[in-house]
Specification:
The chain has 184 residues and is of the alpha/beta class. It has four helices and nine strands. The structure holds inosinic acid (IMP) and magnesium ion.
C-alpha cells in the first residue's frame, strides 16, 4: 500500500501522541458535562476508536454517515446516508471527524445537529486542511494537525475505499488520482 504513497506525513507514533493530547484536553474540558462523541463514518472510525480510549470520563458514542466525495474530487453535494440513533437534545456533542477540507460536510452536519437542541456542539478533527476551505463558517475546536492541500490516505482516510487500514497518514502519489481524472 505504501508503494502508492509519495511519503509518510504522520507516523504511527506521532498519531499516538496527537490523539493522547486531544484526549487529555477533551477529558479536562468535559469533566462536568454530558459528553457524546459523534463520529462521521467511515473515515473517522480509526481516529474515533483511538480517541475514545484517551477520554477518561464517561461518554457515549454514536455514528452518522454522509456522502460527498467521489474519488479525490468533492462533488460539493452532501447527504446523510446514516443518521444518529441517539436523541442528542441536552447532550454535549463533540463531532469527531477525520479531516476538515472544504468544510461542506461539517457545515451540513452542524446545521442539522444544532436543530436538535444539544446543550453544546463542538468539532474535533484529526486533520485540518485550511487552504482547501470553501465554507468558512466552520471552525474546528480541536485540531490534531494541519496539513497542506494534498490528498492524504491512511488511518481511516481512503481514496476510492482503499488505504483506510494503513496505520500512518501518507500523501497519495498524484499520478494515482490524476490518472483517474478525479482531482479538480
Ligand atoms: P469536506 O466536506 O470537503 O470538508 O470533506 C470532508 C470529507 O472529505 C472528509 O471527511 C474525508 O472523508 C474527505 N476528504 C477530504 N480531503 C481528503 C483527503 O485528503 N483524503 C481523504 N479523504 C478526504
Ligand atoms: Mg469521509
Amino acid at each position: 500500500m505504501l508503494n502508492d504513497a509519495q511519503r509518510i506525513l504522520i507516523s504511527e507514533e506521532e498519531l499516538h501522541n496527537i490523539v493522547s493530547r486531544l484526549g487529555a484536553k477533551i477529558t479536562e474540558d468535559y469533566k462536568d458535562k454530558n459528553l457524546l462523541l459523534v463520529s462521521v463514518l467511515k473515515g473517522a472510525v480509526v481516529f474515533m476508536t483511538d480517541l475514545m480510549r484517551e477520554v477518561k470520563i464517561p461518554c457515549g458514542i454514536d455514528f452518522m454517515a454522509t456522502s460527498s466525495y467521489d474519488g479525490a474530487k468533492s462533488t460539493g453535494v452532501v447527504r446523510i446516508v446514516k443518521d444518529l440513533d441517539i436523541d442528542i437534545e441536552g447532550m454535549d456533542v463533540l463531532i469527531v471527524e477525520d479531516i476538515l477540507d472544504s468544510g461542506r460536510t461539517l457545515s451540513y452536519i452542524t446545521s442539522i445537529l444544532l436543530k436538535r437542541n444539544p446543550a453544546s456542539l463542538k468539532i474535533c478533527t484529526l486533520l485540518d486542511k485550511p487552504s482547501a476551505r470553501v465554507v468558512n463558517t466552520v471552525k474546528p475546536d480541536y485540531v490534531g494537525a494541519e496539513v497542506e492541500d494534498e490528498f492524504v490516505i491512511g488511518y481511516g482516510l481512503d481514496y476510492n475505499e482503499k488505504y483506510r487500514n494503513l496505520p500512518c497518514i501518507a500523501i497519495l502519489k498524484k499520478e494515482i488520482y490524476i490518472n483517474n481524472g478525479n482531482k479538480e
